[in-house]
Write a structure and sequence with these properties.
By secondary structure, the protein is α+β, with helices and mostly antiparallel strands. The protein folds into 2 domains: 27-66 and 228-281; 89-205, no CATH class. The protein is 37% helix and 20% strand. The protein has 4 helices and 7 strands. The chain has helices spanning 16-65, 83-86, 186-192, 232-274; strands spanning 70-71, 90-97, 103-109, 112-122, 128-137, 154-163, 198-205. Helix 2 (83-86) links the parallel strand 1 and strand 2. The radius of gyration is 35 Å and the shape is elongated.
């Protein structure tokens, strides 16, 4: 008969060390679940707030676009111009077009690929506003092909105030030295054309009246695209859904752990009652 000592290399859950390790693991998992839930819930709430902001922006822009044209901001107001308060405001301005200083900016519209024609409009006080007279296809990019449509003398323009588009965008940068423009960067265009006292915005001109069935007169105005993607509600549901999944998983894990610990305690009590003190080979 041989006495076999019990194996204590791995603490079981019915020992103080085992219970301590199990409690520490459960606490760590609970903290991780709480952090994940809080993070997902905060992201969902942020998307709800963004949606409210976006809906308010859309309503304000719609009101501006359909409002009667007001006088375009003059030099005294230029320092206060900003996108939140002024973009897409319908404005009216008068002056003389400086056609010899126009700039072509690459564009893609519902009429196809081509260019925006940006022409300086000089007011009687000497101030200048760049006017996007409209779109021209590649075959009409040269001035002689559309000189007949160039307004001469004092001209009144109505359209939408737009904020400058600096740096040429994310994919392609403007190249003033080679005359390649990919965005309507007012300051850069003004510098390249030697213009001074230029407004910090440009104006998208309205479409010119045309006879039914007549061929388009280039440049074609009125092609401003006003679109504000609004998927914030979908994102909010996604983040809130993930938060609920984390919560459900945490509750499930807590219940299963409780059942397992209850079963292990019952088994340990039974083994303690019937375990022999001596083992035979």
């Amino acid at each position: 008969m041989t006495l076999r000592p019990p194996d204590h290399s791995t603490p079981s859950l019915d020992t103080p060390a085992g219970r301590q390790r199990s409690a520490a693991a459960r606490a760590a998992l609970a903290v991780c679940a709480a952090l994940a839930f809080a993070g997902f819930f905060a992201l969902g709430t942020w998307q709800v707030e963004r949606r409210a902001w976006k809906l308010d922006l859309i309503a304000r822009v719609e009101q501006r676009v359909h409002a009667p044209a007001a006088e375009a901001p003059g030099p005294e107001r230029w320092p206060q111009i900003n996108a939140a308060a002024d973009e897409y405001r319908r404005v009216r301005l008068a002056g003389i077009f400086l056609h010899d200083k126009e700039t072509l900016v690459q564009a893609s519209t519902r009429l196809g690929a081509g260019f925006w024609v940006l022409t300086p409009l000089q007011a009687t006080d000497g101030s200048i506003v760049l006017v996007n007279r409209g779109f021209v296809p590649f075959e009409a990019q040269e001035r002689p092909s559309r000189k007949a449509t160039e307004p001469q003398g004092e001209t009144t323009v109505t359209g939408l105030l737009r904020i400058t588009e600096p740096n040429g965008g994310f994919l392609r940068k403007n190249e003033p030295a080679t005359g390649r423009w990919f965005s309507r960067d007012v300051q850069a265009i003004a510098a390249a054309r030697g213009l001074g006292n230029v407004a910090p915005y440009f104006v998208d001109a309205d479409a010119a009246p045309s006879s039914s069935g007549a061929a388009p007169a280039w440049p074609a105005g009125g092609l401003t695209v006003i679109a504000f993607p609004n998927s914030h509600l979908v994102y909010a549901f996604t983040w809130y859904g993930l938060a609920l999944m984390v919560l459900a998983a945490a509750v499930y894990a807590w219940r299963e752990g409780r059942k397992r610990r209850s079963g292990e305690n019952t088994s340990a009590d039974a083994q303690a009652r019937f375990r022999p003190d001596v083992h035979r080979d």
